[in-house]
Amino acid sequence: MKVKILSYHAVAAWRWDMPEDDDCGICRVQFDGTCPKCKFPGDDCPIIMGQCTHSFHMHCLDTWINQESSQGRCPMCRQVFRIKGTADQSEVQAEQTSQS
């Protein structure tokens, strides 16, 4: 028995893996919305999470970090901003050694 599909309409939805009430610490727009520079949600503007656990739209963070006054620090907690999960293992070990 063969079944021939004449047509179908696919529907898709996506969500960032973040709490629903979480929003960008710079522009204050929820992550399901758009950052001020984007036209559509998720339009080449992923969410960037720092090791300090603060999250931002990529465009918002890029604008912030490129300001001379930011000094490369998180706009929320003022720690040196490092993207979560990208630290070199030797860098992590060096920081742990210096803290001991």
Automatic annotation (TrEMBL):
Q: Where in the cell is it found?
A: Nucleus
GO annotation, biological process: anaphase-promoting complex-dependent catabolic process; cell division; protein ubiquitination
Which pathway or pathways does this protein act in? Answer: Protein modification; protein ubiquitination
GO MF annotations for this entry? cullin family protein binding; ubiquitin protein ligase activity; zinc ion binding
- What Pfam families does the record tag this protein with? zf-ANAPC11
SUPFAM superfamilies attached to this UniProt entry: RING/U-box
* Assigned protein family: Belongs to the RING-box family.
What name does UniProt use for this protein? Anaphase-promoting complex subunit 11
User: Which organism encodes this protein?
Assistant: Aureobasidium melanogenum
